[in-house]
Design a protein that fits this description.
Helix 2 crosses helix 3. This protein folds into two domains: about 45 residues, no CATH class; about 130 residues, Nucleoside Triphosphate Pyrophosphohydrolase, CATH 3.90.79.10. Strand 5 and strand 6 form a beta hairpin. The protein is about 20% helix and about 40% strand. It is built from three helices and ten strands, in the order E-E-E-E-E-E-E-H-E-E-E-H-H. By secondary structure, it is an alpha+beta fold. It is globular.
């Protein structure tokens, strides 16, 4: 493997070699996830079958209140056996914009409305096995509309000051990568 360090930096990287998808077969499907077996041909190699998890797009919201800080959910994730803090997040329904999904998820999970929504960035959290795109937004809290409809999704909700966020991440209190990435992005670029 050749390590390239072009004089012009990342702007002068050589073109990437593309893998060809030769066909696909659906192994499983549900409302939440599908599993495909894709025959893929990497450059210079024989084709082989690769599992691809198909998951609808999702949105994550860094919810900020000028007096309270950032609202985080405290919850347990049975899949990884972890408990910690995370941003409100959920799927983007068919026909729904990212902004609409953000407002719906925040209201359902926290009981707060959104005053403003600004897209930060989008990324593929697990692009070696999944096609899911995660869209991160910065939201300004509006009014407290009542109790969360999906209160079962978290044991509690807590406002955290901006100054405390880095420490919580460093202490491992924000175990999910998506929440960690969104919070670090907002901190790094001075959005909160």
């Amino acid at each position: 493997m050749e390590i390239v360090s072009p004089a012009g930096g990342v702007g002068r990287l050589p073109s990437s070699q593309h893998w060809d998808a030769l066909g696909s077969r659906r192994l499983y499907t549900s409302r939440w996830v599908s599993l495909d077996l894709v025959t893929v041909a990497p450059p210079g190699r024989e084709p082989y079958d690769h599992h691809v998890v198909r998951v609808p797009d999702a949105v994550g919201v860094v919810l900020v209140h000028p007096e309270h800080g950032v609202l985080l959910l405290h919850r347990h994730r049975f899949i990884t056996g972890t408990t910690g803090l995370e941003i409100p997040a959920g799927g983007v329904d068919e026909g729904e914009t990212v902004e609409e999904a953000a407002a719906r998820e925040v209201l359902e999970e926290t009981g707060w409305t959104l005053r403003t929504v600004t897209r930060m960035f989008s990324c593929s959290p697990s692009d070696g096995v999944s096609d899911q795109r995660f869209h991160f937004v910065l939201g300004t809290a509006g009014e407290r509309a009542g109790d969360p409809v999906d209160a079962h999704e978290s044991s509690s909700r807590v406002w955290v000051s901006r100054d405390r966020l880095s420490g919580l991440i460093e202490e491992g209190r924000v175990p999910g990568a998506l929440s960690t990435v969104a919070l670090l992005h907002a901190l790094h670029f001075g959005l909160i």
